[in-house]
Design a protein that fits this description.
523 residues; mainly alpha; five-stranded mixed sheet; 22 helices; 58% helix; globular; transmembrane helix; mannosyltransferase activity; endoplasmic reticulum; transferase; membrane
Length: 523
C-alpha cells in the first residue's frame, strides 16, 4: 500500500497505466471471440484471407463494378500485418493468433490513457488528470472495447493526441507544424472511420472561432491531402477508380439509412446516461454540456460528432464509442469547474459523494467481469470443432427459428468453402436446389443447429430431419453466461448454442453439373 500511495503522489500516470494494463490483460487472455459482426467479418477474416492468397468479400479488386465494399482497407491491412507477424513467430492456431492480436490492441489502447491524462492536465490540473486517468483506465467498458477489433475505437488515441496538440497550440505552447500534423492524423482517422470527418470539422470550426483562420485552412488542406493520397491514389490502385470505396460507402449508407437499427434522437443520450452509471452519469453529461468553457474547440469537435449520430437514423451503441473518452474528459472538467465556483452546500456535496461511491461499487466488479467476457463463444468453439474434424467436407448452418442466420466465423475453423444457410422460411424444394449445386467433394457431411437457450433441441432436430433424415448428434458448444444473459434481456441479438450433427447416408439431391455453384465469399 505504501508503494501504491507513493506512486499515486509522485508518479500517478505510471500507476494508472499499470492498472489499465492489468485489466486489459484479463481481456487479452480470457475475452475470446468477437463483439459485433463488423469487428470480425470485415476485419479479421479479410486479413486472414489475404495471408492465404484469397480475398474475402472481394475487398480488393481492379474493377470498380466488382467493388462491393466501401470499407477502407487501412485497418484490415493493419490486422493483416499483426496476424502475419503472429504466423512469422510460429503461431498457427487461430485462437492463439487472436491472443497476440488482442495483446497488440491492449498495448495500443494505453495511449488513450496517456493522451487523455495529458489533455486533462492541460485543460485542468494534476489532480483532475489523475481522476480522469483512473476513469479512462478502469471504466468498465473500456478494457473490453480495447481488445476488440472495433474500427470505432482505433482512432481514439489519435483524436486525443490531436485535441492535446490543438489545445497547446491555442495556448501558444506549440508551433504551426503541430496543426499540420493534426491535419495528417485527422486524415488517417478518417481513413479508419469515415465519420471522424465530423470531429475534424469541429476542430476546424474551433480554430476559426479562436480567429485562427489561416491555421484552420492549413489543417483542412493537409486533411484533404491525406484523404486524396489514401483514397484517391489508394482506391484507384485497389479497385480501378479513385474514391470508389468512399462513393460506395456514402451512397449505400444514404440509400439504406433506415434499413438497419433505427432509434429516436435521444438514443445515444440514454446510452451514455446508462453506461456511465447514474447518478454520476448525470453529473458528467451536465459537465459536458458546460464544457465549451473548458475548450470550445475540443467541445465543438465532440459535439458535432455526437449530434450527427443522434440525428442520423441508423444507430448502434458502438457508433458513439469514438468520442466516449472525450465526453468523460470534458464532462468531468465541466462539472469540476462548475462546483469550484460555487458553494455546493451539504446536501449537494453528499449527493456528489454518493454518486462517486456508487459508481466505483458497481464499476469495479463490472470491469473485472466484462473484461473477461468471452464473446460469441458457442460460434467460435463450434467452428473450431468443425475445423478439427479430418473428414469435414462441408457443413450446413441451420436456424429453425430465424429467417436471417448469423454468419459462421470461418476463421476459427480454417474452412473457406461456401456453405448453405437454412432459416425458418426455407422450403424443402429450395433446399434441394441448394444441395444439387454442391459437388461431392464439397457436399456437407456436418450440420450445425443454432439453438436458443430457451428452445427445445428435439423440436429443432425434428425440423432438421425434415431436410436431412439421417443425422447423428455429435456435440454441443454452449454460449457463455454473459451471452446467455444478454440474450435473455434482448432477444433481438439472437445469440445461440451450436448443436453439431453428422450427416450420414446418401445425398438428398443429385449433383447437377450445369447448375450455378454457391457463391463463395472467399475468392
Amino acid at each position: 500500500m505504501a508503494l501504491i500511495q507513493r506512486l499515486w503522489n509522485e508518479r500517478p500516470l505510471l500507476l494508472i497505466i499499470l492498472l489499465a494494463l492489468t485489466v486489459r490483460l484479463i481481456g487479452v487472455f480470457f475475452s475470446g471471440g468477437y463483439g459485433y459482426h463488423d469487428d470480425h467479418f470485415l476485419v479479421i477474416e479479410p486479413a486472414q484471407s489475404w495471408l492465404e492468397g484469397r480475398d474475402k468479400g472481394n475487398m480488393i479488386t481492379d474493377s470498380p463494378e466488382e467493388n462491393t465494399s466501401g470499407r477502407s482497407l487501412l485497418y484490415p491491412a493493419a490486422n493483416y500485418v499483426i496476424l502475419g507477424t503472429a504466423e512469422f513467430l510460429g503461431m498457427s492456431d487461430p485462437s492463439l493468433k487472436m491472443v497476440f492480436n488482442r495483446l497488440i490492441h491492449a498495448l495500443y489502447s494505453l495511449l488513450i490513457i496517456y493522451f487523455g491524462y495529458k489533455l486533462t492536465w492541460e485543460l485542468g490540473d494534476r489532480n483532475k488528470a489523475r481522476v480522469v486517468g483512473l476513469l479512462l483506465a478502469l471504466f468498465w467498458m473500456f478494457p473490453q472495447m480495447s481488445v476488440r477489433n472495433l474500427v470505432e475505437v482505433i482512432p481514439i488515441p489519435l483524436l486525443l493526441l490531436v485535441s492535446y496538440w490543438v489545445v497547446r497550440f491555442l495556448k501558444g505552447d506549440l508551433p504551426l507544424r503541430y496543426i499540420l500534423l493534426s491535419g495528417l492524423l485527422l486524415g488517417i482517422c478518417f481513413s479508419l472511420r469515415y465519420q471522424t470527418i465530423l470531429f475534424a470539422g469541429g476542430i476546424g470550426l474551433g480554430l476559426m472561432w479562436s480567429r485562427k483562420w489561416k491555421e484552420s485552412i492549413y489543417l483542412g488542406a493537409v486533411f484533404v491531402g491525406a484523404i486524396v493520397l489514401i483514397h484517391g491514389v489508394g482506391d484507384y490502385y485497389l479497385c480501378g477508380s479513385p474514391f470508389c470505396k468512399l462513393q460506395y460507402y456514402f451512397l449505400f449508407n444514404v440509400e439504406h439509412a433506415n434499413d438497419y437499427t433505427t432509434e429516436p434522437w435521444h438514443f445515444y443520450l440514454g446510452i451514455l446516461l446508462g453506461v456511465f452509471i447514474p447518478p454520476l452519469s448525470i453529473l458528467l453529461m451536465f459537465g459536458f454540456a458546460r464544457s465549451y468553457k473548458v475548450s470550445t474547440t475540443v467541445w465543438l469537435a465532440a459535439l458535432l460528432f455526437f449530434v450527427f449520430h443522434s440525428v442520423f437514423p441508423n444507430k448502434q451503441e458502438r457508433f458513439i464509442f469514438t468520442i466516449m473518452p472525450h465526453i468523460i474528459i470534458l464532462g468531468y472538467l465541466g462539472w469540476s469547474n462548475f462546483v469550484e465556483r460555487r458553494n455546493m452546500g451539504k446536501v449537494l456535496s453528499s449527493f456528489v459523494r454518493f454518486s462517486w461511491v456508487f459508481f466505483w461499487i458497481l464499476n469495479i466488479p463490472l470491469v473485472i467481469l466484462y473484461s473477461a467476457y468471452d464473446n460469441k463463444r458457442a460460434r467460435v468453439e463450434g467452428m473450431r470443432f468443425l475445423g478439427e474434424q479430418e473428414d469435414l467436407k462441408g457443413f450446413v448452418l441451420m436456424d429453425p427459428t430465424h429467417k436471417r442466420i448469423k454468419d459462421a466465423p470461418l476463421y476459427y475453423g480454417g474452412f473457406y468453402e461456401a456453405y448453405p444457410h437454412i432459416g425458418s422460411t426455407v422450403t424443402p424444394d429450395s433446399v434441394m436446389q441448394i444441395m444439387e449445386r454442391m459437388p461431392d467433394s464439397q457436399y456437407p457431411n456436418y450440420l450445425v443447429l443454432c439453438v436458443g437457450r430457451d428452445e427445445d433441441l428435439s423440436d429443432n432436430e425434428t425440423f432438421a430431419r425434415s431436410f436431412f433424415p439421417d443425422i447423428e448428434y455429435v456435440t454441443t458448444r454452449e454460449m457463455g453466461w454473459i451471452d446467455a444473459l444478454r440474450n435473455r434481456i434482448n432477444k433481438g441479438i439472437a445469440l445461440d448454442d451450436w448443436a453439431i450433427y453428422k450427416i450420414k447416408g446418401e445425398r438428398i439431391a443429385p449433383y447437377d453439373p450445369d447448375s450455378e455453384p454457391l457463391p463463395n465469399i472467399y475468392k
